[in-house]
């Protein structure tokens, strides 16, 4: 197993490659292109735990389900926030390394993923109404 085999270690991989001279820096762009930008929405099982009003039922909720101020956390909102944070980190790294072509590629892939998920949600909402 090597550093490239785990997609969650992409930032550490980039730092290592950047320290390896010109050969390592040329690999940075390829690593950035392979960082996953998929949106991990909550599973249907999580949604089944919810009551009709959208709140978690007391039997199924735990302290980890609570957000700020003891409010029930919204798993779908958290998934979108994590996705946004990941994409922004990738964009910042592309900017830091001066990789404009990779930046455009990452933005394109991110927007495509965003459009696919929104379309799935729209279709799902129309079919369940």
**Total discrete domains:** 1
Determine Rg (CA atoms, Å).
19 Å
The average pLDDT score comes to 75
The shape is elongated
Distance between the termini: 48 Å
Biggest sheet overview:
none
Structural category is mainly alpha
Please bin the fraction of helical residues: 55-70%
Please work out how many helical segments DSSP would assign.
5
Description:
The chain is mainly α and 129 residues long. The chain has one domain. The chain contains five helices and no strands. The longest helix is centred in the C-terminal third of the chain and has 29 residues, at 100-128. The termini are far apart.
Short synopsis of the structure:
The chain is mainly α and 129 residues long. The chain has helices at 10-18, 21-33, 44-49, 75-97, 100-128.
């Amino acid at each position: 197993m090597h550093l490239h085999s785990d997609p969650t270690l992409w930032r550490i991989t980039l730092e290592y490659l950047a320290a390896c001279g010109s050969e390592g820096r040329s690999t940075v762009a390829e690593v950035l292109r392979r960082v996953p930008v998929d949106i991990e929405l909550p599973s249907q099982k999580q949604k089944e735990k919810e009551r009709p009003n959208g709140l978690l039922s007391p039997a199924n909720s735990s302290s980890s389900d609570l957000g700020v101020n003891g409010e029930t956390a919204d798993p779908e909102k958290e998934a979108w926030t994590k996705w946004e944070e990941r994409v922004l980190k990738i964009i910042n790294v592309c900017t830091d390394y001066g990789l404009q072509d990779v930046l455009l590629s990452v933005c394109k892939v991110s927007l495509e993923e965003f459009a696919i998920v929104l379309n799935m949600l729209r279709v799902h909402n129309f079919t369940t109404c």
